[in-house]
Amino acid sequence: MLRIRLISLLTIAASFLAGINAAELPRATAASQGIDELGLMNFIDTLRTLPNTQIHHLMVVRHGRVVAEAHPSPFAAEDTHTLYSCSKTVTALAVGIAADKGLLNVTDKVVSFFPDKVPSDADPRLSEVTVKHLLTMTSGIKNNPLTRERYNDWVLGWLERGMAAEPGTDWEYDTMSTFMLSAIVQKVTGMKLLDFLNENLFTPIGITEADWEESPDGTNCGGWGLRLKTESQAKLGVLLLNYGKWDGRQLVSRKWIEEMTSEQFRNYVPKPDIPKTAIGKIKYYIKLAWAHIKSWFTGKEPELVKFWEAYGYQTKILHHPTFEAFFAIGLNGQTIYMNRERDLVVVINGSTPGYGSAFKAIWSVLFPACLPQPRGDSGLESDIMAHLQSLDHKPVSGELFNTNEKQYTGKKTHRLAGNEMNVRTFAVSIADSVCTLTITDEAENTAVIPCGYGKWLTSSNSCPPPYDMKALNALAGLHGEWKVAGSYAWTGPHTLSISLNYVNWVTHRDIKLDFWNDEITIQDNFNPETSQTVLFN
Questions:
Q1: 332: left (phi > 0), else alpha (psi -120 to 50), else beta?
Q2: pTM, whole model, 2 decimals?
Q3: Facing residues of 346 across strands?
Q4: Per-residue pLDDT tens for 294-351?
Q5: Which end of the chain is less packed: N or C, by CB atoms within 10 Å?
Q6: Do strands 519-526 and 508-516 pair parallel, antiparallel, or not at all (unpaired)?
Q7: Residue 447, Cβ neighbours under 10 Å: how many?
């Protein structure tokens, strides 16, 4: 069943009295916080029907109170989730706290923190790169993601890249620039980024579960690799909405949050829809010229510019004709979406190739459901719960038994040729409606994963999941075992299908084993790229 916590009326009074405390965000019904229940259900349905989208966690917070949350089976509220590039926004908070303490300034030159690592033949422009340039992705450094694959010292690797542009003139997304911010925080505080945040931010707001990937020399990655629970992500969203204040305490200065969540560099303006006919073009350009003339007097953007994206400090900003929002965004659809006008935070974790459709659902479906005043109870709480429950991930559908089962499964270990998933050997055994998949990777890590028929079975093991982030020392700094939920069924006369969810990570795998005489074809669909490996016994 869906792990869901939708608030009953009996808990509302206690939640209001509790206020926003460090342990847990208060809960409330959607209606009591001015959210139209039918609109909320429509939003949930929209997310559920998005193509190629798997929702792992969802939390909607209004006026600092959780009004709906879902942790679709086999995921659970206690599971952490990797944030990918949502980590960048959290890194910017750490830089802000360090700046508030007088340990650094945004105008400080990056080379001043690492003078012993600056190449002797460095481009003179490198010495002009500041902390602010790192924060706004405008350093001008050559973008080379292979830095983390080829260097044990990532700071040195970044400094040796060379320059592509004058600092501050061009915007280019560069994850390793965020790593440099982490390295700077560690340099000026004498603490790892995560330790610094634990002391100055996470502990005061009740975040205790965080861990963060590290570079080969033990520096937190900064730009990726942070794992948090859904509620912890929502807390950070509430903190940002409230300009760095939490329960009466100013944990990050208002000035910093204002700079962090406002436009520092405009990085994307969509191309206008220009008519193709001559007369249409003439009318369009006359209208555009008039719009620009009016903008000179009003100070507002020309009306023909429908929306644009900008970048703050490690935070994306969306300008739209009817609203302005800012958000943390990470690969595979990790999102902390914030809108101050509606006092709204939406957290989505999942596995999806993009985030645009989910964002459109937020502003086109959920925003109109946010009303200016609370509403009375409409008796739709159970209906909302049913809609949230529809987000559950179904186990594999198929047959329990197969006449060739004994021939195809058992204690036999199959060895694979080289493959993208780095699987060296696997074995499959079935007993008592449980399929046990045993996988050994190229590093000799072995995972024993039980999979249920018609249900999910969750187990823990020390074998890391497949990971699309190529970096030396990948996954170092993360603690505890990996939790894997599995289900299986026979989906054809010769086909065994297995579905795996790494529930405290992000990876989803659909594995199909096709048995034909002495040949086995393995189709491993991973988030959601597909690779096939053929082996002969």
A1: left
A2: 0.88
A3: 60, 337
A4: 666 665 555 545 567 899 999 999 888 778 899 999 998 899 999 999 999 999 999 8
A5: N
A6: antiparallel
A7: 21
The C-alpha atoms of residue 418 and residue 533 are separated, in whole angstroms, by: 8
pLDDT tens-place string over residues 215-260: 999 999 999 999 999 999 999 999 999 999 999 999 999 999 999 9
As a whole number, mean pLDDT of residues 365-371 equals 95
**What is the three-class DSSP state of 447?**
strand
What's the CA dihedral at 74, 78, 80, 81 to 10 degrees? 40
Query: What are the two backbone dihedrals, phi and then psi, of residue 499, each rounded to the nearest 5 degrees?
Result: -115, 130
- Alpha carbon 496 to its chain centroid, in Å, reads 32
Cβ-contact 55, 43 below 8 angstroms: no
Distance, in Å, from the CA atom of 60 to the CA atom of 70, rounded to the nearest integer, reads 9
Q: Sorting pLDDT into bands at 50, 70 and 90, what band is 1?
A: very low
> Residue 436 is encoded by which pair of tokens?
């046990």
- Residue 266 · residue 98 · CB < 8 Å: no
Helices vs. strands in the chain: H and E counts, helices first: 15, 24
What are the DSSP E strand ranges found in 203-333? 211-212, 226-228, 245-246, 249-250, 265-268, 308-311, 316-320, 323-330
